[in-house]
User: Fold these one by one.
Assistant:
Number 1:
Amino acid sequence: MSPPPGLNVRGVRIWPGFLSPAAQAAMLADLRHVAAAAPFFAPVTPSGRPMTVRMTAAGQFGWITDRRGYRYEPHHPNGKPWPPIPPAVLAVWDAVSDCPRPPECCLINLYRDSARMGLHQDKDEADFTCPVVSVSLGDDALFRIGNVEKGGTTQSLWLRSGDVLVLGGDARLIYHGVDRIRPGSSTLLHSGGRINLTLRVVT
Ligand SMILES: O=C(O)CCC(=O)C(=O)O
Ligand SMILES: [Mn+2]
């Protein structure tokens, strides 16, 4: 089933306020359970640089990075399998992905204070016909969208709590990143900050 059209920025589809405040609070409660079983950790890039986000995951695979490289792993760094993706999160995928396969990874990024994420492509997956679905919770984030090729102009927009975004079709491999969050712009997370969920088919 196709969702209502939403916004289209360079082929990226965006649904502002897709989740109601009550749905956001319920999802955050689900994610607290995930994080209790799979605690947030501080990832480092393959070159050894610490990332500014904290990270965990749910699903069959989690995306991780450390000295050994960027990759999907079936276990948290603590050796345990990742917890299942909460049903309410899967329901977002079903509503907007237009993809017959279920997501195999729900990456959970936690942005606090000056955390950011540089421009990058999501390209560690095997099947680029499946989209990437992203859910924003908590503080506003300045999201930057580039091009499918490296370089060129970029366009920025503020993502707010409850917004849903899809990188799919011709925009599946588009460069994107988060320049900064606006600390204190939301009260959803009790200790502040922003959580972004990134749903992906991995295999
Ligand atoms: O935080 C976001 O909105 C984007 C996160 C992202 O691009 C990623 O984790 O690959
Ligand atoms: Mn990404």
Number 2:
Amino acid sequence: MKVIILGAGSAYGCPMIFNSWRNANPQDERNYRTRPSIYVEIDGKKIVVDTGPEFREQINKNKITDIDAVLLTHPHYDHIAGLPELTRASVVLEHNIQVFANQETFADLEKSYGFMMKSIEGSILSWHKIPDKGEFDVCGVKVKTFQVPHHHWHCSAFRFQDMSYVTDWEDISPEGIDILQGTKTLLIECNNGLYPEKNGHSDLENVKKLAERISPQRVILTHLSARVDYKETSRRLPQNFELAYDGMEINI
Ligand SMILES: [Zn+2]
Ligand SMILES: [Zn+2]
């Protein structure tokens, strides 16, 4: 399995608008972060999780030439704003793109992007509702899912074989822990970095507590806000933890 971090940033990216860098050092290019998304190549299938506002640039910059499917975690702007690019993407690729989301996300998509659910300009998109919890099939690839609480909302977490992607979370249920057990590579939101805050997101202490329960070999922190400076934060991480950065490639 190959994973590319298309975006390691939080909802506001880094730098934020008006070149606001907060704690992040502008001289370190690993601090330049677009909105959160990953590309997963598994069993010959090419899957993107979340399509934020920089989706088109992320695909082009990382020289990705094809995708089979898109999985959506929840309907916040930083995860879905690039979704309309899919209408053109399926025309350029000349094949169908499968889109997967749970009922709660679908209800929101129908309000914001209902026009995409009809065929426009020859685009071929197929829409699939996935369960809140359990296993589903993405072009022959088995994916497990569960919900994590996030603000007033919930977010779908995904497990692909022994890699799990948990974004936008502030807590994990016992059911979630069960699904994560055995995960070797945990790719997980750590929006607040070293600064705990009750904002629907997570920080290093939360991630450490979770990692103690599931013992992954490698923990990669992503969805990082501008409070997280790559070098300064990396120095203070446990031995098997590291920070994600845009364009990072992970071979599993
Ligand atoms: Zn987010
Ligand atoms: Zn969110």
